[in-house]
Amino acid sequence: xxxxxxxxxLIAGLFAVLMMVSAWVSMPAAANAASAEGAAQATxxxxxxxxxxxxxxxxxxxxSNSMKxxxxxxxxxxxxxxxxxxxxxxxxxxxxxxxxxxxxxxNMGAVxxxxxxxxxxxxx
Length: 124
What we know:
This protein is mostly helical and about 120 residues long. The protein contains three helices and no strands.
């Protein structure tokens, strides 16, 4: 799975969740706002866990593929290239996961602010 595809799917999923949360929040009851805040936190936790799992799977696949190439060849240019590619993939997996988790935090921060704003409106 390409990181770009993963990021697009994650953002689409987060957008869908945010739309559901906004529907819950728009209901005129403070309990619904609290429920939406809890749902937003659960979504954030699950999304970040999913990102870490995908990162680990990408890293495992890169290491495995590099070892397979290394076992199939004897210190050739192909083996060296496979090791370099694996190192690049490992580095990118960490960076992509970090960027995606930061985006999740930013999105959920916005949701929490919106929920707090709605709570304030209903408490007046």
